[in-house]
Amino acid sequence: MTDFELIREILAGNVSLFRQLLERHQTQVFRTCLGFVHRKEDADDLTQEVFIQAYQSLHSFKGDAEFSTWLYRIAVNRSLNHVRDQQKRSIFDRLESFFVGEKSDRSLPVPSTDPNPEQQLLLNEEQQMITKLLNKLPEKQRVAFVLSKYDDMSQREIAAVLQTTEGAVEALLQRAKKTLRKELSAIYGKK
Hints:
Elements: H1 3-11, H2 18-37, H3 40-57, H4 67-100, H5 117-136, H6 139-149, H7 155-162, H8 166-190
């Protein structure tokens, strides 16, 4: 069955078919969320939230675009809201630790099972740096870049998710790459 046929059946009362939609799109939604939040646990939670919202809002799906496009919009919006909430929490946590004088348990490094701690430290630092650089990008550039690099979406698919033109997506990707290259060369040029 196609997504449209499944949706029609689900809306007609055969809600058990929603599981097929979930299984069909779960991996892509997870990867989209992971591209924004960079933590498996958060991406798992967000994926679940995306499908709950999709189920609750399925009646509002008009069929003007592919179901996957509609679902990606939900995933992107949920992920961006999560990132914003985390940034707000992080600011409050830092303020609290400043006034209380102690650090939160969340800031403690997790012990590595890697036999080479130095390599693990370097990998962790590099991942944190990339995450910071991605989060510094303007929102539309970050969304386009994540969908392109993490989800392997075409510019046409990204344009549908962002509700813009392919040319605009290409421009967003070029600006994102230029900014990231500039930031990376500044960082590695100093070392």
